[in-house]
Amino acid sequence: MKKKLGLVTSIVLAASLALTACGGGADTQNQAGSGASGGEKPKRIALIMRQNVGTFSAQYINGVKQEVEKNGGELTVFNADTDLSKMASNLDAAVNQNFDGILIDHGTAEALQQGTQKAVDKKIPVVLFDTDIKLPGVPVVEQDDNKLAELSLEKLAADTGGKGNIVKIWVAGFAPMEKRQVTYEAFLKKYPDIKEIAAFGSATNNTALDTQAQMEAILKKYPNKGDITAVWASWDEFAKGATRAIQQAGRTEIKVYGIDLSDEDLQLIQEPNSPWAATAAVDPSNIGRIHAQTVFQKIKGEQVPDSVKLNPVLVKQEDLPKDKKVTMGDLSQYVPEWGK
Q1: pTM of this prediction?
Q2: Residue finishing a domain among 117, 138, 159
Q3: In sequence order, what are the beta bridge partners of 257?
Q4: Could you give phi then psi for residue 284, rounded to 5 degrees?
Q5: CB-based contacts of 244: which residues, under 8 Å, 6+ apart?
Q6: 108 and 174, same domain (yes or no)
Q7: Is residue 127 domain-shared with residue 266, that is, in the same domain?
Q8: What pLDDT was estimated at residue 18?
Q9: Chunked in runs of 10, what are the mean pLDDT values of the chain (340 residues)?
Q10: Residues β-bridged to residue 140
């Protein structure tokens, strides 16, 4: 891919990193598309990310990249490394540089409402993903977060007979997390014999490792078999950390129920005696493609609904074959609803 040069006057770009690099640290990454047809100037698309952590994000970015290239565009990724003020600055930079379209991933209204309004005022199409900004004509692509939580929690209840002690791993401050928490609170009321005995969670650049350390401490606090029945992890980075801690402690009677899915997650779920029993998810590559597709529809002046909601699927360990490793690419052979 040829790199697009000379984009930046107001911020420093780290353009040498590959787009699919995970975890970031770079403010931006450039990728050029295959070129617009008929000699048209390629459309410049900015992807404003709160953070780029884990394989889910990598697969989401790859989906965005594929769709931008399909439309002959050029993509620049701005990664804020979890810093909302930096994310707001990145959005302002994209607006000032007059990008043809802007994608926002996991922002907040408090940090980005003003910058988004500025883009709208300049007639730059903006499309959100899992972001709580509400502006007329600014579509939101979102997973059905209440359904994601419901699918994973109901599987937990079914497997435990509606009773037991559970650990919740969750973090505030993200629009999808707040929606999942609403469903979780309703779940505890529905199943009064399921008790939350511990709750923790934080979003960092090393979320899975930090979660693993925190889960190890919980396991030491509750050392006996039966003390903990299950873990509900509201994000796959949380589920990865919890799964590894449980495996290393030899406590695989504790089952993990998660949200989101990637190839790395699938490998963990398929390991012998893995405690990760099920996860509810939408294909992250499809999310990226639909997010980018929607901004190109806006650029072309097509009518787009203000809400584009993607339906999740429950992927259960028991549905996967024992004699081969399944990847995201062939998951639909075993979970027919996957990728639709």
Answers
A1: 0.77
A2: 138
A3: 232, 278
A4: -65, -30
A5: 208, 212, 268
A6: no
A7: no
A8: 31
A9: 35 32 37 51 96 86 96 96 95 98 96 97 96 93 94 98 98 92 98 98 91 98 97 96 97 97 94 96 93 97 92 95 91 88
A10: 128, 307
Residue range of the domain that includes 255: 145-283+314-333
- In terms of Cβ atoms closer than 10 Å to its own Cβ (0-12, 13-18, 19+), residue 179 is buried
Which amino acid would we find at residue 200? F
CATH no. for residue 124? 3.40.50.2300
> Are 180 and 321 part of one and the same domain?
yes
CB-count exposure of residue 233 (10 Å: 0-12, 13-18, 19+): buried
Query: Which residues pair with residue 78 across a beta bridge?
Result: 28, 48
The pLDDT of residue 39: 62
Give the residue carrying structure tokens 């698309």.
45
Half-sphere exposure of 266 (CA within 13 A, CB side): 24
Number of folded domains in the chain?
2
Q: Which one of 123, 138, 153 terminates a domain?
A: 138
Alpha helices in the chain (DSSP H): 54-70, 84-96, 109-121, 145-160, 175-190, 207-221, 236-249, 263-269, 284-299
Give the pLDDT of residue 56: 84
State the first-to-last Cα distance of the chain, in angstroms, to the nearest integer. Answer: 30
Whether 235 is in a domain gets the answer yes
Q: Yes or no: say if 244 and 221 are a contact pair by the CB < 8 Å rule.
A: no
Say if 298 falls within a structural domain: no
CA pair distance 175, 129, nearest whole angstrom: 10
If asked whether residues 192 and 278 sit together in one domain, one would say yes
Q: Are residues 133 and 149 in the same domain?
A: no
Taking the CA atoms of 97, 99, 105 and 111 in sequence, report the sign of the dihedral they define. positive
Q: Which two tokens stand for residue 305?
A: 């609904």
